[in-house]
Amino acid sequence: MKRSFRAVLVCGAALVAAYMATGCAYMRNRGHDAMDIIDVGIDLPKSAKPQFGLYLNFFNVVPIGYASVDSKQIGMGNRQAGWLDHEQEFWGAVIWGKGKVGNGQFDPLDPHQVRPDQAGIAERQSYNAGIPRMIAEGNPPPPLQFMDCDKGFYLGYIGFHANCRPFDVIDFILGWTTLDIMGDDKPLTPVAQPAAGSGAAR
Description:
By secondary structure, the chain is of the alpha+beta class. The chain has a domain at 39-166. It has helices at 2-36, 131-137, 166-175, and strands at 38-45, 51-58, 62-77, 80-93, 97-103, 127-129, 149-156, 158-164. Strands 1-3-2-7-8 form a five-stranded antiparallel beta barrel. A hairpin with a 3-residue loop joins strand 2 and strand 3.
């Protein structure tokens, strides 16, 4: 009986020590994982100019529709929540498209927004969509955007945007064990590009 109690006590102490060693980063990452599962919001225009959008973008592989939106959004996205800026520039013809989407403040260290090879960018980028276009022209989205199932509807002065990431549900659950299958718990470390004329790449 005493041995069993001692074993439970040792295991409990080990768990507490492991939790304390991770510090605040552990719970912050769990919160990020939860917020990564879905982006959703109701959009209102910034100006009197009416806007239009109707689109679906399945995992950046099948882009369909069009949107040109610069609005304010009541909702959550890009790990932010509240009264956010929302930008959506998108067009897609099933196998060929291009898009730029953003909620709130741009974060150049968010792997959902920036590719690892994009060192030093200061604003949101447009990325190609559809496998044929990405093969033909390059400029794919960040790897984690291939987990997005983005959709939206805007007509005049009101709109709705939603994005779900099914694999982030698994990432959130496994994250409690410290597994990070999406590789998004650590800030992105962009690969430094060689300076022009340095002769590093020939």
